[in-house]
Amino acid sequence: MELSQLPLVLFLVLISNIYSQYTEEIPKPTVTIKPAQHVFRGETVTLRCDIYAEGVSSWRYSWYKDSSGNASSDQQEHTFSYVTESDAGKYSCYGGEREGSRTSRRSDEVTLTVSASDPRAVLSVSPQTWLTEGDPVTLICEVNGSSTGWTFSWFTVTVLSYNRYRYDLLSDSSRGAGGNYTVSSAALNHTGVYVCRAKRGEPAYNTPHSNKQLIWVTGVSPPVSLIVRPNRTQHFTSVSLSLSCEDQSNSTEWTVRKYTDSWRWLEDCSSSVSGSQTGSTCTITDTIPYDTGVYWCESESGEKSHPVNITVHPDVILESPVHPVIEGETLTLRCLYQNKTTPNLRADFYKDGSLIQSQTTEMIISTVSKTHEGFYSCKHRARGESPKSWISVTDMFKFDLNLFVIFNILKLLLISNIYSQHTEGRPKPTVTIKPAQHVFRGETVTLRCDIYAEGVSSWRYSWYKDGSGNAFSDQQEHTFSSVTESDAGRPKPTVTIKPAQHVFRGETVTLRCDIYAEGVSSWQYSWYKDSSGNAFSDQQEHTFSSVTESDAGKYFCYGGEREGSRTSRRSDEVTLTVSASDPRAVLSVSPQTWLTEGDPVTLICEVISSSTGWTFSWFTKTVLSYNRYRYDLLSDSSRGAGGNYTVSSAALNHTGVYVCRAERGEPAYNTTISNTQLIWVTGVSPPVSLIVRPNRTQHFRSVSLSLSCEDQSNSTGWTVRRYSDKYGLEDCSVWGSQTGSSCTIRSTITEDTGVYWCESESGEKYHPVNITVHPDVILESPVHPVTEGETLTLRCLYQFTTPPNLRADFYKDGSLIQNQTTEMIISTVSKSHEGFYSCKHRERGESPKSWISVTASDGLGLDPVIVGVTAGLIVIFLIIVFLVLLWRYRNNKGGGSQSLSRVSQHQNSSQTSEQNQSEAGNKTLMSDNSYFLNNQIHLCFTFHCDICRTNSVKTNVLLFSLLFIEDIVSGPTELTYAEIELKSTEKQKKNKENKGKSSESSDTVYSKLNLETHQAAGSSDVTYAQIK
């Protein structure tokens, strides 16, 4: 570096450092959101902007949302007292010194998310809900999808009466900071049902109460035992189940109660669908999966003892002990199948999800230890898998095993074994009803019970109705001599949801409960949601006028006779799903949006993720002015029933932009207007063509593009318009420059992708072309449809190489058809070649897809090869005719009486005296009529070939007219010539058009053959052939 340049460099470095130090001092604000970035509708939310800069005591703040240029607030803190979904977005702030010129930078954007649904507290228990006195337990409360800023409270739930509860705040609930409530040593009085709730913000925003969790704490020596028959924790469906409370002195003061997973509340055994309480024994005559839950013994004073977890499951179950296993004992597990005479299965056994023994009929642990505690299940490869059962292992020294307790244990084990052996081979009775299951009042009906078992000669029968525990007959057959409605079984209600099970926020939704039972004229209904014990409605129909996400859930109903004692069973649950987003109609077109007059087309309207109960309407979209549109309902929109609107034969006036909309319900609930679909219908012979330069459908970015409307007469009345996915309908003046009928885009951008067409002053639209602007790699393909039989050449072009041709792979409809070539050539195009084409270079990238349309030839449909061969044969035929006439002429001349008469006078400014003499001689012979022959032949042949449907250019390929007239030539010897004159009739037709006569747009060429004879020197004739 020269020394003369050093001061300049130092100066630039100094300026750079000064500027750098100055810009580094511009502070950047920090945005905080309280209580959290993810909040729920209705919460109070505060945005705060903090700017730290030395020397600035006061700032003026500006808040912006979603990169908007309009400040929404000028305070340091901005508070939403009741936040809604519309407040969600990205927020940033900016500051300016109040009494100075300093400004801050713009802060980073911070996203505020607002959930439409209510926050849900979820309660879980660790390590488990089954405890022994002294065990630790932790209640864990969390808010789904949110973890910031919440404080928690815990409650016990007490059942006051049917469907009435009391929530008691735990006195030491402050121990629940951080979402965990821990009991280090559980006592018997900790047994109960627990819930939690969360809150945050100021004023406080509370979640609803969480799910319920049942915690059981069992003493070392419980005063009563719950005996289960059959003696296992898992049971099949549709079987009988007995549970009894047995203590050492008096079992009459104890009753069986339960807490089921499906209902989530405490209830008596008799409240089961088929349960009945007799003394201290509860009998379920027909088990169902809803009977799964916790059962225990409860005294009249409210003491709870000996909980047992019962699971009801179809097909495959695990036979495992009801009560905890003592260390050192033997544990036997079996896998049972319901529909088999010998229920034992050869199966795989699992502990805590891991395979521990495979393909055996039973699993035996000879000496149980604490390590064997866990969840066990079994699985048969064909029959299925059992539920999991928790097996608890207890230290034997925790039990006070006096002789009396040992005696009772042995007695229970003996009864259990006898009962187990008896039930393993139990036959299943078969019930028949005669004359039929559906009868009429007054008929005689007989019920019969048949039991088949080897070695049993006589049975004692018990008949039960609707799950009652009281037998009403002990005979094999029971007869109703005159049956009434009260003898019928309990009906099962049916729940329907209208308009559909999947609805959108704001729709009107109606739940309906239908119960069919003969003889019952009026029912009292009860509606339940999500297995809640609280009925929320007593009407047959319950309507949500504007449904929200909180109304989503599982609904079922129940009925009781208003003026009688009959009741129904519980209906099946029906799920109502509510979407927070608005329903969106989507419009598609089949088979395609590019049509020719007469083609069929179908508009298909669908609602995303919903298909039930919608009716549809179709509209055309008209641009009134910038950003203003008009939607016109199609007059025959009723043809769109079922989501399809079909036009069997498209006409030119069907060209336009279409949308659809769906509605359902009463009052009507409408979707938003769908996406737009542009349909083009092109005539067979359009009066104008859209010429694209460069002549291809795909173009690079940042290049010039010219589009011109050209017709045969006047192109000044046409303008270029376009439709793009982003901006809709636009004139050329918006996106280019219009000069006459030409529109020029000086520098293309990707937003120029769209459909371009020519439009007349009267609004006629013709010749649409799909233009795509894409960077880097494009496909060179023809703008207009290709005619069958023509040659099609495709190339892959890259913007930044010279020449732009790439060696690439070519695809049709997504499938590779030619690889690693600079161009793809289809020598003879057919209709099967129609489709979407693209190209791909392994390094440069891939082009967009272009639709290539193939059009059939009209008219005679002549193949170019056939035309060429035919034309050649005609020329050969004319030459043969000429030679034959020449031969005849020579023969006639030899006879001295035959001559040729010249038809066309040869024009030559340098005619000789010999020619004048020849003409005089000819006239003399003609006047004498000495053997005169005048033959005239006129031959005309015309071909018509429509090159393509869009252009429909009629071309006269060949028209020959041949005229021969014999002339008389004098002289001893002759050289004969023929003259064929080609004349275009185009000028003649133009002259006729100027006179007001119309003619067909075709070029006709006439060929004239002149035979002339000239007399040469030495009295010899020169005859020649000339083509003009």
Mind explaining what this structure looks like?
This protein is mainly β and 1028 residues long. Among the domains are: 86 residues, Immunoglobulins (Immunoglobulin-like); 96 residues, Immunoglobulin-like, CATH 2.60.40.10; 94 residues, Immunoglobulins (Immunoglobulin-like), CATH 2.60.40; 86 residues, Immunoglobulins (Immunoglobulin-like, Sandwich), CATH 2.60.40.10; 49 residues, no CATH class; 87 residues, Immunoglobulins (Immunoglobulin-like), CATH 2.60.40.10; 97 residues, Immunoglobulins (Immunoglobulin-like); 82 residues, Sandwich (Immunoglobulin-like). Helices cover 10% and strands 41% of the residues. It is built from six helices and 79 strands. Strands 9, 11, 12, 14, 15 and 16 form a six-stranded mixed beta sheet that branches. It is extended. It starts with 5 loop residues before the first helix and ends with a strand. It comes from Onychostoma macrolepis. Pfam families: Ig_2, Ig_3. One of its GO terms (molecular function) is transmembrane signaling receptor activity. This is Ig-like domain-containing protein. Keywords: Disulfide bond, Membrane, Signal, Transmembrane, Transmembrane helix.
Helix and strand layout, with pairings?
Layout: H1 6-24, E1 30-34, E2 38-40, E3 45-50, E4 59-65, E5 77-80, E6 89-97, E7 110-115, E8 121-126, E9 130-132, E10 137-143, E11 151-161, E12 164-169, E13 180-183, E14 192-200, E15 205-206, E16 213-218, E17 224-229, E18 234-235, E19 241-247, E20 254-260, E21 266-268, E22 275-278, E23 281-284, E24 293-299, E25 304-312, E26 316-319, E27 325-326, E28 331-337, E29 347-351, E30 354-360, E31 362-365, E32 374-380, E33 384-385, E34 389-391, E35 393-394, H2 403-424, E36 430-434, E37 445-450, E38 477-480, E39 494-498, E40 502-504, E41 509-514, E42 523-529, E43 541-544, E44 553-561, E45 574-579, E46 585-590, E47 594-596, E48 601-607, E49 615-625, E50 628-633, E51 644-647, E52 656-664, E53 669-670, E54 677-682, E55 689-693, E56 698-699, E57 705-710, E58 718-724, E59 728-731, H3 732-735, E60 737-739, E61 742-745, E62 754-760, E63 765-773, E64 777-780, E65 786-787, E66 792-798, E67 808-812, E68 815-821, E69 823-826, E70 835-841, E71 845-846, E72 850-852, E73 854-855, H4 864-894, H5 913-928, E74 944-946, E75 954-956, ...
Parallel strand pairs: 2-7, 9-16, 18-25, 27-35, 40-45, 47-54, 56-63, 65-73, 76-79, 77-79
Antiparallel strand pairs: 1-3, 3-5, 4-6, 6-7, 8-10, 10-13, 11-12, 11-14, 14-15, 14-16, 17-19, 19-23, 20-21, 20-24, 22-23, 24-25, 26-28, 28-31, 29-30, 29-32, 32-33, 32-34, 36-37, 37-38, 39-41, 41-43, 42-44, 44-45, 46-48, 48-51, 49-50, 49-52, 52-53, 52-54, 55-57, 57-61, 58-59, 58-62, 60-61, 62-63, ...
